[in-house]
Specification:
The chain is 36% helix and 15% strand.
Length: 190
């Protein structure tokens, strides 16, 4: 049995792709500048790349699982062209304002709950204490802390970050590439 490895847990909207409300169509999907380079560096450094994303648009009836899966296939394809492989994509389809009571929750997966991270750690044999999480909202950091993720960062995506939000994170960066370049050191840029 192999030893658990660290993961880079990544929120999708705002971290990997440009933040737009409820992105589910390929034509609305745009990677953040530098994200491929940052993911490649994390991958070379031995991090499992795991997307953890709230997809409440499913519960709100804005799109379905099939549309979301199609977008994730597109994302995997874009990254594969650059030699980057995602180890997993985990999503929560619930939303507290869903018209469907079964999709309203409460659930263990919607961030700030740690369910997606804990599931990924079990299924992919990940070491949470050596892992990092990158999100763009306080709920992302709260999920990482609740799961026992070692380092929890925020990036600026246009969401307002309060002083409390900033204080909860280990650091805040403009984007994922800046985090990789400045925080994680020269070894990741090799």
């Amino acid at each position: 049995m192999t030893a658990p490895r660290p993961a880079a847990f990544l929120d999708r909207d705002g971290v990997i792709n440009v933040e737009r409300d409820y992105v589910y169509r390929v034509e609305d999907f745009e990677l953040q500048p530098g994200v491929v380079e940052a993911l490649a560096a994390l991958q070379r450094a031995g991090y499992a790349l795991v997307v953890v994303t709230n997809q409440g648009g499913i519960a709100l009836g804005l799109y379905g699982e099939a549309e979301m899966q199609h977008l994730h296939t597109h994302l995997r394809g874009l990254l594969a062209e650059a030699g980057v492989q995602l180890d997993g994509i985990y999503h929560c389809p619930h939303h507290p304002r869903s018209p469907n009571p079964a999709m309203r929750g409460p659930c263990a997966c919607r961030k700030p709950a740690p369910g997606m991270l804990l599931q990924a750690a079990r299924e992919l044999q990940l070491d949470l204490t050596r892992s990092l999480l990158v999100g763009d909202k306080a709920g992302d950091v709260a999920a990482g802390r609740a799961a026992g993720v070692g380092q929890n960062f925020l990036v600026r995506s246009g969401h307002v970050l309060s002083d409390t939000d900033v204080a909860q994170a280990d650091a805040v960066y403009d984007d994922l590439l800046e985090l990789v370049q400045r925080r994680l050191g020269p070894a990741l840029r090799a």
